[in-house]
Request: fold
Amino acid sequence: MTDDRSERPSVAAPLLSVRGLTQRFGGIIANQDVSFDVMPQSVTALIGPNGAGKTTVFNCVTGFYRASAGQIVFNDGRRLVQVNDLLDRFFIGGSHLVARAGIARTFQNIRLFKDMTVLENLLVAQHRALDGNLWRGFLGSAHYHRQEDLALESAWRWLDTVGLADAGNRLAGELPYGQQRRLEIARAMCGKPRLICLDEPAAGLNPRETEALSDLITELREHHEVTILLIEHDMGLVMGISDHIIVLDHGCVIAQGDAEAIRGNPAVIAAYLGGEEDLT
Reply:
């Protein structure tokens, strides 16, 4: 009898496990032997100076790149998903399969549909549930209309969560920058992810908006059972909300640990701030 215990997710297992991730672009090595774990319902930060390879790691985890070497394993609650194996099934891209497995992301540069309303942006994010029932829609199926109602309920619920319920009928492109950032997070959450990857969510925010973002990330973890992996340059935000921090420099991991361990790490200070001061 075959022993399939290795395929059964463990309660104590990481939600995401990255082992030996290496990404090459021709002769350029963007990441070299990157390894880390993301535990369920934690906030894990990936930091480092510009050009350290942080976004490349994100692109591998979320299926925009196929890693040149290494393993990316995601525990989707039913089975262990090998991200590289998932991408091998398609000739071009596979990020939609990674999203279906339960990994969502936002981008450093906002990618909203700015000529659609705020509400429509969140409905588009739920298109998979409706696409699967397209013929039922043509036939006026009660099930299809129920799915439409559920999509609307989810959209309004997330708009309320991120404080944008009053803006649902405005064009997304008319929102202030900080609200567009929150809308991106709400759109990602409409896909019901178990892991959300936030790429510099505080970029361009003022201190009040950054504080609101910190509160939102904490709420996602504590009240919506979501795990967060983020890239961020705002060290106040990172140190205030992160359970675990991974530091990259020149594509390699140079340190890992909690905020206290990272704050005074000489290698991190030298790489990140030129050795002049502690991270705060």
Notes: Residues 142-161 form the longest helix (20 residues). The beta strands are 16-25, 28-38, 43-47, 69-75, 80-82, 103-105, 195-199, 227-231, 244-249, 252-257. The chain has two domains: 1-102+194-280, 111-192.
